[in-house]
Amino acid sequence: MGRDLLHKNEERTSLNKDLSESEQNPDRRGRPTVSTITGFRQDEDLHWVAELSCGHTQHLRHQPPWQSRAWVLDPAQRLEKIGQPFACGWCAQVRE
């Protein structure tokens, strides 16, 4: 029939910011500002993209004089970069 207006809602406590349940991104993207390179792929324009351990990606273009990354064009040099630390700009933005 009618709703009991005196019925109290059971409220839950707020989550502590340090708990994993309170993460904005449960897949942990956005947590570290320094990741590692896990692999490379090319986009539809054939530019090289680094795949990072945090789940983000980063274009790595060699376009002198603006961007000098000749190593990205060489398969052996790309392979050497896998596992190396990489400062993720996306993660840094999330932390600010």
Report on the structure:
The protein has 96 residues and is α+β, with helices and mostly antiparallel strands. It has one domain. The chain is 15% helix and 21% strand. The chain is built from two helices and four strands; from the N terminus they run βββαβα. It has helices spanning 75-81, 89-95; strands at 34-42, 48-52, 57-59, 85-87. The chain has a four-stranded antiparallel beta sheet with strand order 3-2-1-4. Strand 1 and strand 2 form a beta hairpin. The longest helix has 7 residues, at 75-81. It is globular. The chain starts with 33 loop residues before the first strand and ends with a helix. The relative contact order is 0.21. The model is unreliable at 12-26 (pLDDT under 50).
Q: Which structural traits does this protein have?
A:
96 residues; alpha+beta; 21% strand; globular
Helix and strand layout, with pairings?
Layout: E1 34-42, E2 48-52, E3 57-59, H1 75-81, E4 85-87, H2 89-95
Antiparallel strand pairs: 1-2, 1-4, 2-3
Question: What is the H-and-E element order?
Answer: EEEHEH
Cα radius of gyration in angstroms: 22 Å
How far apart are the termini?
51 Å
Largest sheet: 4 strands, antiparallel
Structural class: alpha+beta
Low-confidence runs (pLDDT<50, min 5 residues)? Answer: 12-26
Main sheet strand line-up: 3-2-1-4
Number of domains: 1
Share of helix among residues?
Answer: 10-25%
The total strand number stands at: 4
Approximate shape? globular
Q: Averaging pLDDT over every residue, what do you get?
A: 76
Tally of DSSP helical segments: 2
Instruction: Report the β-strand fraction as a percent range.
Output: 15-25%
